[in-house]
Write a structure and sequence with these properties.
The protein has 43 residues and is mainly α. The chain has helices spanning 2-29, 35-42.
């Protein structure tokens, strides 16, 4: 059971880092009009 929880936490951390990377890229390129559309596609 503990292994399952650890595995889930690792996956969640990896996913959040992935999302942060995408957000950083969007901010770098200043897609102000497209940010909402891109985020709605992601989530």
């Amino acid at each position: 059971m503990i292994d399952l929880i650890r595995h889930f936490n690792l996956q969640r951390q990896g996913f959040s880092k992935y999302v942060e990377g995408i957000i950083n890229v969007l901010q770098l390129y200043k897609y102000d009009s497209g940010v909402r559309q891109a985020s709605s596609v992601l989530f």
